[in-house]
Amino acid sequence: MRYAVLGGGKRLRALLVLAAQQAVAAGRADEQPAWQEAALRSACAIELIHAYSLVHDDMPCMDNDVLRRGKPTVHVQFGQATALLAGDAMQALAFELLTPQPGDAGATPHGAAIAPVVQARLCALLARAAGPAGMAGGQAIDLAHVGKPMDQRQLQHMHELKTGALLQASVLMGAHCVPEAPAQALQALQRYGQALGLAFQVVDDVLDATADSSVLGKTAGKDAADNKPTYVSLLGVQAAQALARQLHAQAEAALDEAGLPDVAALRALAAWVVQRSH
């Protein structure tokens, strides 16, 4: 589990949680330590879900990959049975982190108890993003379309589930750490997360086709080798890059509409997503 979670990675999802919480809490006179505690736990939880999905995704029954984050994948390092169990355990641990019990280590630092209604909301957001209407459902669609054609609408739907749902949930979980967040802000942040999630996947497809394994930390060109539909295979590199820029503009526009006093961190993360090289 430590090998899978702590051995590198962008931490984008965790950063989105923290940035969204900070943006919604900015300027609130009633800010509470529990809000930061909830955001930190949410950031760790979503990283655990993301890491577990990579462990399972890399296994021979799925994508059968041997390199992740610049080192051997978990099943290569520890065997398939241990990799499967590690992924299962990380998924369970994510929800354990979101529901601290009285007396747990770090459950109430500085008296900062997380309200049960906040715990429930965070668990619901994460479960829906990771389950059949989110990441797992998107992966199922992906596996079912190896070697089969997809139009752009179908490809977008798949990636909105497989990749976008968890990125969007990162933003919404951060926002929902703050009680009574303005409805206008929540709706705008949902649009921001949706555009950013899709932009991330478009850029990922471009990098898979144009970068090498030493830069990516995973096997480059594997989508093409596995005959999987991607934005590059459908649109070409230049058109895919243009689409990423268009989605970045949509994310920026959503932040403008959020009505929040400080969205600098969210803007910086959106810019990084479309400009990244790995």
List the helices and strands and how they pair.
Elements lengths: L1 H5 L5 H14 L7 H25 L9 E2 L2 E2 L1 H5 L1 H19 L17 H15 L4 H10 L7 H25 L6 H28 L2 H4 L5 H4 L5 H5 L1 H21 L6 H12 L3
Antiparallel strand pairs: 1-2
Strand order of the largest sheet: 1-2
Mean pLDDT: 91
CATH fourth-tier homologous superfamily: Farnesyl Diphosphate Synthase
Q: Which structural category do the helix and sheet elements fall into?
A: mainly alpha
Largest sheet: 2 strands, antiparallel
Helix content: 55-70%
Low-confidence stretches: none
Polypeptide structure, described:
Helix 2 runs antiparallel to helix 3 (33-57), helix 3 packs antiparallel against helix 5 and helix 8 (152-176) crosses helix 9 (183-210). A two-stranded antiparallel sheet has the order 1-2. The protein is built from 14 helices and 2 strands. The model has no long low-confidence stretch (mean pLDDT 91). The radius of gyration is 19 Å and the shape is globular. It has 278 residues and is an all-alpha fold. Belongs to the FPP/GGPP synthase family. Its cofactor is Mg(2+).
